[in-house]
Amino acid sequence: MDEVKIIEIKQSVFAANDKQAEQLRAELKEKGIFLLNLMSSPGSGKTTTLTRTIEALKGELKIGVMEADIDSDVDAKRIAATGAKAIQLHTGGMCHLDAGMTRQGLEALETADVELAILENVGNLVCPAEFDTGASRNAMILSVPEGEDKPLKYPLMFSVCDVVLINKIDVMPYFDFDLQKCKEYIHMRNPKAKIIPICAKTGEGIEQWADWLRAEVAAWKNEA
Amino acid sequence: MDEVKIIEIKQSVFAANDKQAEQLRAELKEKGIFLLNLMSSPGSGKTTTLTRTIEALKGELKIGVMEADIDSDVDAKRIAATGAKAIQLHTGGMCHLDAGMTRQGLEALETADVELAILENVGNLVCPAEFDTGASRNAMILSVPEGEDKPLKYPLMFSVCDVVLINKIDVMPYFDFDLQKCKEYIHMRNPKAKIIPICAKTGEGIEQWADWLRAEVAAWKNEA
Q: What is the pTM of this model?
């Protein structure tokens, strides 16, 4: 597999993360770069979902991916293998990315030719929800084995996301997972959240997710 | 189901968490209370594992459980249904428990008649690993659907745990999970970690886990 760039990022020392996030979002808009922030628990399938997403959109959008992790570069290598531009961000033990760290990542990614930048955030349902990265849209994955009660326990994460992908629906028969209840719980936290069941492993639902992304990129281009 | 006590805990303002943790550990030793800190990702099966653990040890040890979550009381209700003493700790959005927060929890639990106190930490593979709670032993659960590569990505968590339970082994045939590789990765981070494959749902491996706990409680009693 290809060698990938590994960047050690430092937590931004500025307290005003929200302000930095707004500024980054405005700059990205100016440059025509749609930034997607993808969050989830560890092991819910972010990287596999991304490889499917890249496959689905490859001919249409120039994609660059930042893989954030505390350690290792296994995810960036998997993304690089798809042919997409990919770098690994090491957070130095940090449990989330803020806008300053995201900016460092985007600079390292070299986004001159990127239209869709994707940040795979640190696997964590708590801290990443508290820090605006400057993303155009926030997405999260909840996987079937985690259980349908997660919106009850991690309310903020579900409330900040524009879309929730319910992944690993292929193993639904082997788990006590109530999809209808899960949808209700998500909408309790966030009535506007779009919910898309997928199986990143088999590709099921990926076309619907790619359609959602296409529509959001188009809508964002027309936003003030 | 029984009503359970819900405690809103505040993050300790003292920076010297390690010192507080040592002090709490010494006090608990004095009182004869073994404190187990149980950590994992969201949805890896902490609560189901605990209900099985209580079943296995019910006649031998007086058990009290603190269920930490950002929101909801579903877990404490499940524990209370086993007949064990249980309280719910709400962390007010915090992603982990420190020693001061654990002390508040123990006070609320009322431990006069407790021999084995169990803290179910917030579902998170990052932050809880950074804060010593004052526990006698640290345990974690990694579930099969999360993937065997987690020790590569979340090194600190695996290095601070005395025991790693590999849960949901019943669904191994439906996931690409390499148990041998997983064990190697865990031992890379922590050569001394005990590894016990279990299925909390069916009860497989629980007796081995209960044996480990029995032996650790006995060893701890003889520690200085």
A: 0.92
Choose the mutation target among A11, A39, A40, A41 for the interface with B, i.e. most B CBs under 10 Å.
A41
Closest chain B residue by Cα to residue A146: B43
What is the spatial distance between Cα A80 and Cα A2, in angstroms, rounded to a whole number?
7
Nearest C-alpha of chain A: how many angstroms from B135? 22
Domain boundaries B24-223, CATH class:
alpha beta
How many residues can be counted in chain A?
A: 224
Q: For residue A155, list chain B residues with Cβ-Cβ distance below 8 A.
A: 70-71
pLDDT tens digits for B69-106? 988 888 999 999 999 999 999 988 889 999 999 999 99
- pLDDT score recorded for residue B99: 94
List chain A domain ranges. 24-223
So what's the pLDDT on residue A147?
97
The residue assigned the tokens 């508290």 is A130
* Chain B nearest CA to A78, separation (Å): 13
Angle at B196 between CA B195 and CA B197, to 5 degrees: 120
